[in-house]
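User: what does the whole thing look like in 3D?
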Amino acid sequence: MKGLVISASRNIFMVKPDASGPGGETARKQLACRIKGKVLKGGERYGKPLAPGDRVCFDVDSGHPHRGLIRDVEARKNLLTRFNRQGQASQLLAANVDLVLCVTTPVSPPFRPRFLDRVLLQADKAGIPPVIVCNKQDLCEAGRADPDTEERLQDWSRIGYPVLRVSARTGEGMDELRSYMAHGFSVLLGQSGVGKSSLINRLVPELPIRVGPLNEKYDRGNHTTAMSVLLEIPRLGEGTAIIDTPGMRRFVPDRIPAEEIPYYMREFARLVGTCTYGLSCSHRTEPGCKILEALSNGVIHEDRYESFLRIRDELAGLGYND
Ligand SMILES: Nc1nc2c(ncn2[C@@H]2O[C@H](COP(=O)(O)OP(=O)(O)OP(=O)(O)O)[C@@H](O)[C@H]2O)c(=O)[nH]1
Ligand SMILES: [Mg+2]
Ligand SMILES: [Zn+2]
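Assistant: Here's the predicted 3D structure for the full assembly of 322 residues, as structure tokens:
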């Protein structure tokens, strides 16, 4: 049988069988599956070899109709990952998605543009269009926003990333968010406490999922969502689903060689190769560097350039082991 991976925890993968299988719609109860032989071909280098959104081929256990064994994963159209520094391995976040919703906040937890720049980089590397979702707009009206937020939101919009200003609390911006999500799989990414689960609760109130309070002392989330899970939302259109992910404190880009970073930063990408020293330019001090020129002309925002330098230094020191 074939089905869709809904969630992945340790060695158990929840799989929803396709409706076309025996029994039709009534047979679409999720099965708890293990992997046949424990290692999935092609998944050896990941901590968990499957992610929500993956399509798998599996057998049902005849003695336990709610258990199964996964034999194979189908070819993916894309795969969103990050690098797990502790485990020194790629971590799969979601597979076969159509949209990455990069969630941030103007305050509580504090606005962190560098986190978002990293997520945008990874989405572009994976070939999945990102949309920036700035949640908690109700707190802006209360005058609490970080003054840099609006400037950076406008800059991301200028360089080609759609920006939505929303509030899970008041419902502001939800129609626009829904229209982006219709007819595809979306994944929510962002730091703990930015309101990813709250956005899902607002969008799909019939499926309440757990949201958690902020830690008052540190003004950040408490890692309420423990594992990624895919939720189907047929009400928003045929084939619509959203993947909620656990908040992360840091986002380390995965398997992007330091010299390739400018290809995945949109306002840098069009300048790649045009410096006097061509592809060997480090864009730090060289004469005739088009990236430094763009920085001084305001074509590249100084904060994006700072993100670029920091990401490059970090990735250069990382040495991914494939
Ligand atoms: N003022 C305000 N608070 C919000 C809004 N959205 C979420 N919150 C609050 O922010 C806190 C964290 O929300 P969650 O939805 O649990 O955040 P999360 O991003 O899912 O967090 P993790 O699961 O830890 O990654 C909760 O106290 C929410 O009530 C909003 O639009 N405005
Ligand atoms: Mg959550
Ligand atoms: Zn240069």
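In plain terms: The pocket of zinc ion (ligand 3) is lined by residues 275, 281, 283, 286, 289-291 (CB under 6 Å). Helices lie at 113-126, 137-141, 148-158, 174-181, 196-203, 266-269, 290-297, 302-316.
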